[in-house]
């Protein structure tokens, strides 16, 4: 007798709306945030866990703003003996004042006796060797000198907890002599594909086999939003295989992303497994594609004494590759960004004008893959569909930089309609 006679005919999981699902995931993420110290070279694009104070004054000494001569301002124009020079980081000066000046370059420490700098353009060589003539004197005391700590004072808070570190902030940390930087830990995110039909890319395709596209795609995506990817390979559709991969994830990662096996089939083991060891917060979401999207948390010691050692988050993505793609952007990417400390982990949203008719889905809101660009003529953001939106067709995700949020309705949207778009890439 064939299988599938005794399978359930309806899902026991209530359908949740997408915003509620995202809120549930992010609120569970809040409980597992952790910090660590990293070297300056590793801090780019991460988020600060604590405030950071300047380790020293910037500049650490009175610095010349110009290439010129360090002078006593009150002595004014006239002929001066150049008694020495201070270039950035080096010095050989004797004295300033009483007819003497010292040559200084931009950024060099100004000798203590000097109270102003006269730029070279305001001077000329004097007839006598080793002397110069100051034609225009420094207008006031302090002229062209940056006092100690003008840019940053020692002990000043230069960056605050939860602030993002990018190019300028890396420079600021370095300039303030901060080497070990407190940041949120990046989550270790394990990726597991499930299915007897799957083979690695480049492998032999026997009867009914297809290439595992979800895992390479998800591993790449995890890295691109700041997670640390952990490859768990492919588990066959056997309870034992899925359970042991799940156990491995509990040891090696903070978050587990599975794909496949979350729907209604007789080999769909993910939901029962998660329910056995943890709490399934939702198992169906009102979205197209991505309906069987599942989220669970596993408490410490759920398997045995010490395993897992901390709370784990598990996202069960549907097997269809485009469903994976959409669910990653809507739920997984905000989760990873939240765990990395980002204050606003969501993708930006904009309003766009559609450039073609769009048939709406009467049952589920659709996240329609599109190319969003700036239309010079219309002076507006516009969107073009990526074509047939089948959840198996990865070409519909190719180059997509937006997900159009299309309402559930039994009608067709006309051309030029304003719709919301979630940006998942740079606007063209
Ligand atoms: N009776 C019902 N059947 C289905 C329903 C339903 O409500 N009732 N929902 C459909 C929807 S919507 C989706 S989405 C899929 C999700 O199913 P699963 O998550 O259980 O995924 P699988 O059945 O394992 O696979 C679906 C599809 O995707 C291919 N796949 C799986 N893994 C990969 C991979 N790593 N790389 C590439 N392709 C993959 C798999 O071969 C299947 O073609 O369920 C519908 N069914
Ligand atoms: O929700 Mo499924 O992801 O429509 O194909």
Short description, anyone?
It contains 6 helices and 32 strands. With 428 residues, it is an alpha+beta fold.
Walk me through what this model shows.
- This protein has 4 domains: 15-34 and 185-339, Molybdenum Cofactor Biosythetic Enzyme, Chain A (3-Layer(aba) Sandwich); 35-58 and 150-184, Alpha-Beta Complex (Molybdopterin biosynthesis moea protein, domain 2), CATH 3.90.105.10; 63-146, Molybdopterin biosynthesis moea protein, domain 3 (Molybdopterin biosynthesis moeA protein, domain 3, Beta Complex); 349-423, Beta-clip (Beta Barrel).
- Helices cover 17% and strands 32% of the residues.
- It has helices at 18-29, 167-175, 214-224, 239-252, 270-277, 321-339, and strands spanning 15-17, 35-39, 46-47, 52-53, 63-64, 68-71, 78-87, 90-92, 100-104, 116-119, 123-125, 131-134, 145-146, 157-159, 164-165, 180-184, 188-194, 198-199, 210-211, 228-235, 255-259, 279-282, 284-286, 294-298, 312-317, 349-354, 358-359, 366-375, 380-385, 402-406, 412-413, 418-423.
- Strands 6, 7, 8, 9, 10, 11 and 12 form a 7-stranded mixed sheet that branches.
- A hairpin with a 2-residue loop joins strand 7 (78-87) and strand 8.
- Helix 1 (18-29) runs parallel beside helix 6 and helix 3 (214-224) packs parallel to helix 6 (321-339).
- Bound molecules: ligand LQZAQKY5 and molybdate ion (MOO).
- Pathway: Cofactor biosynthesis; molybdopterin biosynthesis.
- Its cofactor is Mg(2+).
- GO terms for molecular function: ATP binding; metal ion binding; molybdopterin adenylyltransferase activity; molybdopterin molybdotransferase activity.
- In the N-terminal section; belongs to the MoaB/Mog family. Belongs to the MoeA family.
């Amino acid at each position: 007798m064939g299988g599938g006679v005794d399978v359930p005919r309806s899902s026991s999981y209530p359908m949740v709306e997408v915003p509620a699902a995202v809120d549930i995931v992010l609120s569970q993420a809040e409980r597992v945030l952790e910090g660590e110290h990293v070297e300056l070279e590793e801090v780019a694009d991460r988020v600060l866990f604590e405030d950071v104070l300047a380790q020293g004054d910037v500049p650490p000494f009175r610095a010349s703003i110009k290439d010129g001569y360090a002078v006593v301002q009150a002595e004014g124009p006239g002929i001066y003996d150049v008694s020495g020079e201070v270039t950035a980081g080096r010095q050989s000066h004797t004295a300033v004042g009483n007819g003497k000046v010292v040559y200084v370059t931009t950024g060099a420490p100004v000798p203590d006796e000097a109270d102003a700098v006269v730029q070279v353009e305001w001077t000329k060589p004097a007839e006598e060797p080793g002397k110069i003539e100051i034609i225009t004197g420094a207008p006031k005391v302090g002229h062209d000198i940056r006092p100690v700590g003008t840019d940053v004072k020692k002990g000043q808070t230069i960056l605050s907890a939860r602030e993002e570190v990018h190019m300028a902030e890396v420079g600021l940390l370095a300039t303030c002599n901060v080497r070990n930087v407190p940041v949120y830990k990046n989550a270790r995110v394990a990726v597991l594909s499930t299915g007897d039909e799957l083979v690695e890319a480049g492998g032999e395709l026997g009867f009914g086999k297809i290439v595992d596209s979800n895992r390479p795609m998800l591993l790449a995506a995890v890295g691109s939003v700041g997670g640390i990817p952990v490859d768990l390979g492919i588990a066959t559709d056997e309870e034992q295989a899925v359970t042991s991969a799940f156990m491995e994830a509990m040891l090696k990662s903070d978050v587990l992303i599975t794909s496949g096996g979350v729907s209604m089939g007789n080999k769909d083991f993910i939901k029962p497994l998660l329910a056995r060891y943890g709490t399934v917060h939702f198992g169906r979401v009102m979205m197209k594609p991505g309906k069987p999207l599942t989220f669970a948390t596993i408490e410490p010691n759920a398997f045995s004494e010490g395993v897992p050692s901390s709370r784990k988050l598990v996202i069960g993505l549907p097997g269809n590759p485009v469903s994976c793609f959409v669910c990653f952007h809507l739920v997984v990417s905000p989760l990873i960004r939240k765990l990395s400390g980002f204050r606003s982990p969501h993708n930006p949203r904009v309003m766009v004008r559609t450039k073609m008719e769009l048939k709406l889905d009467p049952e589920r809101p659709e996240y329609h893959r599109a190319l969003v660009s700036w239309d010079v003529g219309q002076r507006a953001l516009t969107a073009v569909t990526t074509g047939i939106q089948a959840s198996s067709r990865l070409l519909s995700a190719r180059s997509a930089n937006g997900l159009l949020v299309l309402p559930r309705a039994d009608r067709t949207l006309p051309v030029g309609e304003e719709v919301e778009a979630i940006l998942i890439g740079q606007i063209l």
